[in-house]
Specification:
The complex is a heterodimer of chains A (265) and B (395).
Chain A: E1 2-12, E2 15-16, H1 18-25, H2 46-51, H3 54-65, E3 77-81, H4 87-97, H5 106-111, H6 116-125, E4 131-135, H7 140-155, E5 159-165, H8 172-175, E6 182-189, E7 198-202, H9 218-226, H10 233-241, E8 245-251, E9 255-263
Parallel strand pairs in A: 3-4, 3-5
Antiparallel strand pairs in A: 1-2, 1-6, 1-7, 5-6, 7-9, 8-9
Chain B: E1 4-13, E2 16-17, H1 18-28, E3 34-35, E4 46-48, H2 68-77, H3 82-93, E5 98-103, H4 109-117, H5 132-136, H6 140-148, E6 155-158, H7 164-177, E7 183-190, H8 194-202, E8 223-224, E9 226-234, E10 241-251, H9 264-277, E11 286-288, H10 295-309, E12 314-316, H11 319-322, H12 329-343, E13 345-346, E14 362-363, E15 368-369, E16 374-381, E17 385-394
């Protein structure tokens, strides 16, 4: 499968947007695992901005930053990939359900669905295009990449992949420790266009990865290993470098997703 | 689009185990709903509960996946020879060429809810038996199913609330059309848990009676649980089979938990599904509605349906039988659509006494016996997420 990347974003601790992060991802600047950039949800209408969770705001900021000028968010399908989804709100609901009163608020409940970010995105952008929310545990990024690539090729519509995960709160964190919040988005298109940044050739391989791509910087590698969305970091590094690269991601936990990145020249 | 046959399919819901039990309840107009007796739930409501899950643990190699949701998956895989049909497909295509794409909204979170009741009083820790990955995480259902069926193709869980297990058909169709796999196991499993029972109650969307879709006095949903699977394959030539002919996906861009009042997104999903199927609206013999029995859903869906089909296409909801099975609602409707085509009937809405006079569409109150070649099936969810599917005969 052949797709073209038209936009890319990254938000993580010490990674404040694509332009500020490129030098770090290519190793020209050292990575410092700093604070997470402020998440504002600025694109949301005021009522939705008040209600949206940090998880949703991370997804929405990531999505928005990946759309180049000249591309209309109303004209693209979306794939939201997240292992755990709305981890904070889920913790609050479980805590409340463990009390005798069990007073869940309506907003809490509708914010807890895995596709909350997708719903807020469609409201924020007024897009009625197809939107999928999926989970593939630690391989949610590659599952989302495969889903988005297949969709843009099969349906000839740009597809925005948004991968995001927040660390669960205690006590779930003890069973599911994630290192830090991380979000990234890629706008994919089946056709080469003036927006094309790089070409990706993607295939699914049912075999375990022979040589899984990792980050050479130990802190970035810890981030990659510590958040399902950050499993896409090796691909982001290739996009930042803009040079031919072969990346192998783990996919569906037992298979792999080899990705060849090629400059668009 | 390239049609895919549903070479095998099965269902477990409050109506019973497998297609025969489902069909017998539909044709005998026997609801699966009962007064809520779910352990530790104190709500004045009715539920569609699957019997026997408490006595059907997952043991052996996959024992780590044991939870109510995966138990329901296991029970369902064992109906109608489904697991054997998949084993035969595995021989034909190779395990790596069969994908597993399943929908769920709450996975095994019942286990987490129960674990939160048993936190360590000093440390707050969950009991050591708590297993996040294999019960709670949404991927658990897809991971369990593909390991149970010994499949190695791409696996993923789609979680878009109540449209989840309709959207799996679209994803699978694209994966097969793109030659990533040759066949796919699709479907979904959602099981009762406190989050949805109390959550929908908080939204005042749960009825104190068995739900009454399209009734003038309808006052909310009955929550149910169900598991369903279908094996999707390219049609061999010369077969007379039931196939997925089209799908449509959309979002409302309106509100997180209320549908657009005119059913704007719903209409778009239906229109796209028709477009992909190449069928005209008047070729659809029956519309299997999402029909949850909330005030807002049913009227919005009626308006969306009428904007495309006019008032001449028979339609009904089966929620009065199964309850609203949330993330499994898409596959429940898909299986009922196939049964409708196979048997030549359209079920009449159960529990509906007096049709809402505001409705313009043709809502069946009694069963309609007639040849059914093409069915449109609707599933809509929170976040304004919509999916419509067209099923029909191919030969």
């Amino acid at each position: 499968m052949r797709v073209f990347v038209e936009g890319v974003s990254v938000i993580g601790p010490g990674l404040d947007g694509w332009e500020n992060s490129r030098a770090i991802l290519t190793g020209r600047e050292s990575y410092v695992e700093d604070e997470l950039p402020q998440l504002t949800g600025a694109k949301l209408p005021p009522a939705e901005r008040r209600r949206a969770t940090s998880v949703t705001k991370l997804a929405l900021e990531s999505a928005e930053q990946a759309i180049p000028a000249g591309r209309d968010p109303k004209q693209m399908a979306t794939v939201f990939a997240s292992s755990g989804g709305e981890v904070e709100i889920i913790h609050r609901i479980f805590s409340e359900l463990a009390t005798p009163e069990r007073q869940i608020s309506p907003t809490q409940f509708h914010n807890s669905v895995h596709n909350a970010a997708s719903g807020y995105w469609s409201i924020a952008t007024a897009s009625q295009c197809a939107s999928t929310s999926l989970s593939c545990f630690d391989d949610s990024f590659s599952a989302g990449l495969l889903e988005a690539a297949v969709q843009t090729v099969a349906e000839a519509i740009p597809v925005l992949l948004v991968a995001y995960d927040f660390p669960p709160l205690p006590p779930i964190a003890e069973s599911r420790p994630l290192r830090a919040p991380f979000g990234t988005a890629l706008l994919l298109n089946a056709e080469k266009s003036v927006h094309s940044l790089m070409e990706l050739r993607i295939a699914f391989d049912a075999g375990q990865p022979q040589a899984l791509s990792r980050m050479s910087d130990p802190s970035l590698e810890a981030l990659r290993a510590g958040n399902p969305a950050a499993r896409g970091l090796p691909l982001l590094a290739a996009l930042a470098a803009g040079k031919p690269a072969s990346i192998v991601l783990s996919c569906s936990l037992t298979g792999s997703l080899p990705v060849q990145a090629l400059p668009c020249a | 689009m390239q049609a895919l046959i549903l070479s095998h399919y099965t269902l477990v819901s409050a109506l019973g185990r497998g297609l025969d039990a489902t069909l017998a309840a539909l044709r005998g107009r026997r609801s699966g709903l009962s007064r809520c007796d779910f352990p530790d739930v104190d709500l004045n409501t009715w539920i569609g509960r699957v019997d026997g899950l408490e006595e059907a643990p997952i043991i052996g190699d996959l024992g780590r996946f044991d939870c109510r949701n995966n138990r329901l998956a296991q029970l369902t895989l064992r109906q109608d020879g489904f697991e054997h049909a998949v084993a035969a497909a595995r021989e034909r295509y190779g395990a790596h060429r069969i994908g597993v794409i399943l929908g769920t909204s709450t996975s095994g979170i019942l286990e987490t809810e129960l674990a939160y009741r048993r936190r360590d009083p000093k440390t707050g820790a969950l009991p050591s038996a708590f297993n996040y990955q294999h019960a709670h995480n949404n991927f658990s259902i897809a991971d369990f199913t593909r390991r149970y069926l010994e499949l190695g193709g791409p696996a993923l869980a789609i979680s878009t609330a109540c449209s989840s297990s309709a959207k799996v058909f679209a994803s699978a169709q694209r994966l097969i059309a793109s030659n990533v796999c040759d066949a796919a196991v699709v479907g979904g499993v959602d099981s009762l848990c406190l989050t949805t029972l109390y959550g929908f109650s908080a939204l005042e969307l749960v009825s104190d009676r068995p739900c009454r879709p399209a009734d003038a006095r309808r006052n909310g949903i009955s929550i149910g649980e169900a598991g369903g699977f279908a094996l999707l394959e390219k049609a061999p030539t010369g077969t007379d089979e039931i196939a997925l002919l089209g799908y449509g996906e959309s979002t409302d861009a309106y509100h997180m938990s209320s549908p657009h009042p005119e059913g704007r997104g719903a209409a778009r999903a239906m229109r796209e599904a028709l477009q992909r199927s190449g069928l005209a609206p008047d070729e659809i013999d029956y519309i299997n509605l999402h029909g949850t029995a909330t005030k807002a859903n049913d009227i919005a869906e009626d308006r969306a349906v009428c904007s495309i089909f006019g008032e001449a296409t028979p339609s009904s909801s089966i929620k009065g039988w199964t309850g609203h099975t949330l993330g499994a609602a898409g596959i429940v409707n898909a299986v009922v659509s196939c049964l409708s085509i196979r048997e030549g009937f359209a079920p009449g809405s159960l529990n509906t006494e007096a049709l809402d006079p505001e409705f313009a569409g043709w809502i069946l109150l009694e069963e309609l016996e007639k040849p059914v070649d093409y069915v449109l099936s609707n599933s809509f969810g929170f976040g304004g997420n919509n999916a419509s599917l067209v099923f029909g005969r191919v030969n």
